[in-house]
């Protein structure tokens, strides 16, 4: 039995269209991952190394790092194996190392496969700051990454909110050697995130997503998703209350529901 309960191999259903405002990241990832896979002869022609093995996504929480890794897997028809760094390090001595080796073994068996290490900083904390167990975990990860041949269809993605505390051995060429910053969404992206997360909901005429986008500066995509859920809850509560009182109220989410969910939310 795997010690990593959550790390099942899956083919995620997330597509680029589900992610707002990160087209530049999509393009960068396609040129790093997909293009060399499709036409390896270009790399030979240009005398470039085969390709990269790992990409680090960094930036504030809730800004689609996980979504991007999942969309990358879906759009390039790869399997996806997700591992949480914090799960790995709470294991007993020796167990974490075994779990890491197990993850790479399973990924090779399921290739083409992307391994996604979320919260990679908890494994990759600078070795000098951590005790012996931390050191072994990082060493095992480095060994496994070195054992992967670029373009041999296992690709590694890592995500962190704390790139500053990562062990520099992890960010060296041949490991997580491309670093992509994923920042807070812009106004236009926030509007799209509202759209994505209300796609299936009946919005009233008065809902103005431009206004909502303008009022949510500094919020992450996850924050906005949360506000949409709260607005829906409030709309349902109003609808049921009106219906129970014998009033005729349409099943819709009005601007006031969003306004109330915004007020409650502290970023
Ligand atoms: P963490 O660092 O906390 O793990 P993360 O950067 O990996 O966060 P995700 O888990 O990918 O963030 O995002 C959380 C949720 O927020 C997503 O499942 C998605 O519903 C929503 N979300 C965040 N950013 C976007 C975006 N740009 N477009 C659409 N949805 C988004």
Automatic annotation (TrEMBL):
Domain AAA+ ATPase span(s) in chain numbering: 51-186
Source species, domain of life: Eukaryota
Protein's recorded name: AAA-domain-containing protein
Organism: Lophiostoma macrostomum CBS 122681
Top-level taxonomy: Eukaryota, Fungi, Dikarya, Ascomycota, Pezizomycotina
């Amino acid at each position: 039995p795997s010690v990593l309960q959550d790390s099942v191999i899956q083919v995620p259903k997330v597509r680029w269209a589900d992610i707002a405002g990160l087209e530049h990241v999509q393009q960068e990832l396609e040129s790093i991952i997909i293009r060399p896979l499709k036409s390896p002869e270009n790399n030979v022609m240009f005398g470039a190394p085969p390709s990269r093995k790992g990409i680090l996504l960094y930036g504030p929480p809730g800004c689609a790092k996980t979504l991007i890794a999942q969309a990358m897997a879906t759009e390039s028809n790869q399997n996806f194996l997700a591992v949480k760094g914090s799960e790995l390090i709470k294991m007993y001595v020796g167990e974490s190392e075994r779990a890491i080796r197990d993850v790479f073994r399973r990924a090779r068996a399921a290739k083409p496969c992307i391994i996604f290490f979320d919260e990679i900083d908890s494994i990759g904390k600078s070795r000098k700051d951590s005790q012996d167990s931390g050191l072994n975990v990082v060493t095992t990860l480095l060994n496994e990454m070195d054992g992967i041949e670029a373009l041999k269809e296992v690709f590694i993605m890592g995500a962190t909110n704390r790139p500053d505390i990562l062990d520099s051995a992890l960010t060296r060429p041949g490991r997580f050697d491309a670093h992509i910053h994923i920042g807070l969404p812009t106004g236009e992206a926030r509007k799209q995130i509202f759209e994505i997360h209300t796609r299936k909901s009946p919005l009233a005429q008065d809902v103005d997503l431009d206004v909502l986008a303008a009022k949510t500066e500094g919020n992450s995509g996850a924050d906005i998703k949360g506000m949409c859920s709260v607005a829906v809850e409030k709309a349902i509560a109003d609808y049921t209350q009106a219906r129970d009182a014998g009033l005729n109220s349409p099943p819709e989410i009005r601007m006031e529901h969003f306004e109330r969910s915004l007020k409650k939310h502290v970023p």
